[in-house]
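Components:
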Amino acid sequence: MSSGRGAPRRRRATVAGAIALGGWLVATAAVAQPTGLDLARERLRERALAAVAECPRGAVIVRPRALPEGAADPGGLASALLAPAVDALEAEQGRAHLGSFGGDGPLVAGRLGYQTLLDVELSVERGHLVARLSSFSTEDARRRGRASVRQRIDPSLRRFLGYPAVVTEETVDARFGVLPGRGYLAVSAADLDGDGGVEVVAVHADGPRVFRVRPGRRRHSLEELGRAAWPDDLPPSPSPRRRTLATALARGRAVVIRHSDHAAPIEVTWADGAVVARRADGPCPDDRYPVRGSEEPRVYCARLVDGRDFFDNEVERGGAAAEVPMHFYALAGRRLEARDGARHHLDALVNPAGRLVLRARVLPPPAGEGEAAQAPAEHSAGALGYGTALAMGDIDMDGAAELLLSHAAAAGAGDQLSLLRMFPRGALRVVWRSEVLPGSVWVAGAGDVDGDGVEELFAIEEPQDPTRGRARLWIVQ
Amino acid sequence: MDRAVSRAALVACLSVGVLAASGATPASGALPPRHGGVLTLPAPELITDLDPARVRSHFEATLVEAIYDGLYELRPDGSVAPVLAEGRPEREGNIVRVRLRRDVRHHGGSTLTARHVVRSIQRMTTAPESSWLLGAFEMEGGRPAVRELDEHTVEMTLSRRATRVDILLAATPFRVVVGGSLRRRPLGTGPFRARVDGEGGVDLGIFRFAVDRAPWMNRVRFVPPRPRDAELRAFELGELDGSWQGRSLYGREPTRPITTAAANVSTPWLLVPNRARVLRDDGAWGAVARGVDRRRLERAGLVPRRTLSGALPEPTLPGAGATRDLSLRLLVHDGRPLEGRIAEALAGTLDERGVRVSVERLSEARYDAEVLRGRWDLRLAVVRPPLPGRGPMVGAAFAAAGQIDRARELTASLADPDAATAAARDLGCVVLGHQRVSLHHRADLVGLRIDELGRLDLPAIARARRPEPFR
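Structure:
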């Protein structure tokens, strides 16, 4: 009965999907974003000028006094970071050099004929590169200025500091921490309190809960920093879904939550030592759910299909309509930089049939003078048998995205975590699969939750019996 | 690394192009139930209309709760939650105001207003099964004092201050009928739109904007009831997704996996006497009441019980007297197979005791007319409590037995178990037993459960996903 009419409809759907995939692939031209190295150089330049402002005018010597331990190329890092600062100081003070010498700094610098010494100490702290600047007048050896710069370590800085080993089946580290209660609907990670460490924000049916991960040898411990109830002024959804779902998107020092039982987004922040949840204004219209993709603007505003628990393929990006290939349960997108400096835009989604669809967009290096600009290369890949939990990150900083996924089967029938690597050339490789877990994994996220400077992928496993037991936060690195 | 997640598990380093196939690994995990699909089930009884105020069976309750929403709902933990109401009722003396949510769409596409709610409550005055619940309200000109204050506010005057109006409004008969024809296309706000086919079946279609969550399935069809063998044959052939009659024809092992959902439901069956005719004599009524053989009723499909519920006492009955030449007229509804079987079993039992019982099967309209005129001696009634608890059970039992005034008295003390216990002794009927409801269905249906009142939660039923291997 239905096969006669269903087949053309499926064909039409396939064609429409293919067209949408094409449209998805031919995305807007990427805008080059400053790298961590660019940002650190610029901030160091500014702070160096400020640090020597109180010093007498005259020749300046910039001395990298301490360099990060174990860095792959510490000298290169110091040169790359400090060159713009030295140039700016030369322009400002007349003469500036980058130098290296031991002993009493101001005394030696004075003997060498410099009026000012700018000492720079570089170190790695909780996933950040930290530069501490101290300026001295060589005449009286007094400290005249102080400044510091803190920059999250990204691949551009990793080239100097060294990369972690590429994750393989043998090196995957998957450990869990036990969460209080069960029934988590979404999870994200953000530095809510601005201390440089990243907190896990788990969306519970009763409201958001914030945790800090304390890495352990066998299992992690999760310190609950606080929780909040849903705001009172939150209107109820006019048509809640049979399966309650939520999205959580990190935005600076806040996480924006959209919950299917409510009609407006909620912003979770940290204020006066407590978690605060209040009605949010944006980044999407109230009836849409923000998810992170790879194309600018990177917040995709997705709409739930009427009466369903999955999202429509028509999304809104920066107020304009856009399309992803098909309806989806989860979508994740990243911009990554390979060790050779090539940039990739990667997107993945899991559709309601459990199909994983991926797209990679490889941006060519900038064209030289007289060279024709190359078009970005597009690649896609897919696989079947996956569940609603999807997170994307680069946990070994090799420029290829790792995906953490749950598997496709009925709820309560156990689950498995899979770590897949998607290469920019379009290949998809299974890196690791966990043993069968008793519970079900519905949500996943990415972020540097243990503060080691390298991203982790994490997912929440709900207990097998939905009325008993506690959920577990799996962290895969 | 934790041993529980050994890295050695199931690694098949497959490089996949677009959906390239590889070795299949049994997958288990987390995907929600599949949306969509059609569920076809037999109706256990003829459906002629869908009126929440006239629910007489667990099947009708299943349907009206899928089609209509109430202002409030009673949750399993005993708390009351607003559904169509915006919040808790606002009280001022014995005046109560209920504000409606402004964003509720009904099946006709427009917004629900206070007028719909007022009309829906006032309809209950003509329904003998549920009008007793209106005893909680003051009456104005024979109608409950329920008014539309503005487009989204309903005002009610209670007959007693102490009444928990939110619990009362959570009762099934207070589900809001927006309009439409209850015999064709009733309009509500629930997860399904309904179309009665006029032949005893009903077609339910998804309402995607349901305030109480849209269903998993796109459509649920209840085809008109058919004889046992025909129903089972259709089930075996896959024309039906379930059967109320059995697992397979002639008790054979089903060829495909079958699961059975069953429950002993708290909907007692009563034998109601007409004490204005032959049974006015206590001895005669006592003899009939004590002549009931519950073992035979068990074979007819009832679970033998003597009380309305475990916490309530047995109704007091007079002692048995002489039954010579006693000839009784027992009315049953046509198109209700269980009622017919119980009546036949009763007639057989009483016949052995010298009481002649003629079972008369009447259409709904004729049945009501005969009862109204008092031309009957015995009838069967099923008690459908509008809410869980002893008070609603006893109130509904009095209403089912035709003692509407006693039932109305109980509306003010629905939450008082002691008042209900005292009243239960005076019911004046025989509790024949409780019903056991079983639905045998294909094994790939999930979420199919029968609750303590015999209802199926239709919106929660879905087709299970087949395990999907990695590809």
